[in-house]
Amino acid sequence: MRIAIVNDLAIATEALRRAIASDPAYSLAWTAVNGAAAVERCRSDRPNLILMDLVMPVMNGAEASRRIMREAPCAILIVTASLEGHHALVFEALAAGALDAVQTPILGGRGQVEGTSRLMLKIAILARTISGKAGRDARASISPARADAIPARLIAIGASAGGPGAVAAILSALPAEFPGAIVLVQHLDAQFVPALAAWLNERSPLPVRIAVAGDLPLEGSVLIAGTGDHLVLTEAGSLAYTAEPRDSFSRPSVDIFFQSAARRWPGAVAGVLLTGMGKDGSAGLKALRDAGALTIAQDSASCVVYGMPRAAVELGAAAFVLPPEKIAGKLMEFSSSPGSGAGPEERAGIWNRFNPTRSRL
User: Fold this and answer.
1) DSSP 8-state secondary structure symbol assigned to residue 278
2) Could you list the active site residues?
3) Which of 96, 117, 182, 285 lies at a CB distance of 3.0 to 4.6 Å from 66, suitable for a disulfide?
4) Whole-angstrom Cα distance, residue 52 to residue 75?
5) Per residue in 196-240, pLDDT tens?
6) φ, ψ for residue 209, nearest 5 deg
7) Using CA atoms, how far apart are residues 142 and 293, in angstroms rounded to an integer?
8) CATH topology of domain 2-131
9) How far apart are alpha carbons 299 and 276 in whole angstroms?
10) Is 154-354 a domain of CATH 3.40.50.180?
11) Domain map of the chain by residue range?
């Protein structure tokens, strides 16, 4: 895999170069000292992956990511020395299509590169995503739903590349008194999730925070998966984290959360799969649709990366294919429909209402 480095600091570029050289599966494509130079290089020599710094002269990493995804799309990993004071830039870059973010390794005094393990893990995960080798389907061990569990309307959202921007567009269009519980699984390194919650809080009338084990999804609130483990619903209707399956390269996995919602949530459910590379979430969205949920995939025109939603559409998992602003409207319609959706008959009625072309099995 050919990897490009965009960084204005020579010492950081050298640390990244040595990290790449440590694995024979990777080679250095080129280097650039600012975002503008990177955009220009991508037009003539598109690499498989770009390691993009954030704060650079001439053009920062967020704007460079936006232009590259528009003019010469390729996978981008944000590599930054520090989050301090740069939260907005991180999420501008992720909204533009960068796949993830990680801290820059450090070149020590003896020429040793420190802090490369997380970077190399991220590169390995992205390499598998780019090549399409997703490994075996990730499936959690899930028990049937309990009839006496919490019957609130649950909105389960999954997103990857470009997700922060799409999620912000949806949340900003919902009212503060929105009568649904929202749970978000966003592909993102755990160290950046607190910043994502803060960033979304500035754009959402609903309170946004990281999900803690034991939390109950509650109406009018947004909970975000916040660790490298998978978020699932328990039989009691609360949230929990699980390390299994350990070989799932999407961590946290949208599929695993969607599948747990399909099996364990007794009330009405809406599943929303947003922009992202790969196919995580498509099987889970299909499980939700088969269980009677309203299912929505983001449309190709509004996606930064039309991968995960495309896989869901091809699988027949999405009842609706919509841009973010129309997704918000559909969720409002769903949340205000009559009945609590707590019982199987009401859930089936809601399913038939929002899935008019199919009948419930």
Assistant:
1) S
2) 160, 187, 280
3) 96
4) 10
5) 999 999 999 999 999 999 999 989 999 999 998 999 999 888 999
6) -150, 170
7) 17
8) Rossmann fold (3.40.50)
9) 12
10) yes
11) 2-131, 154-354
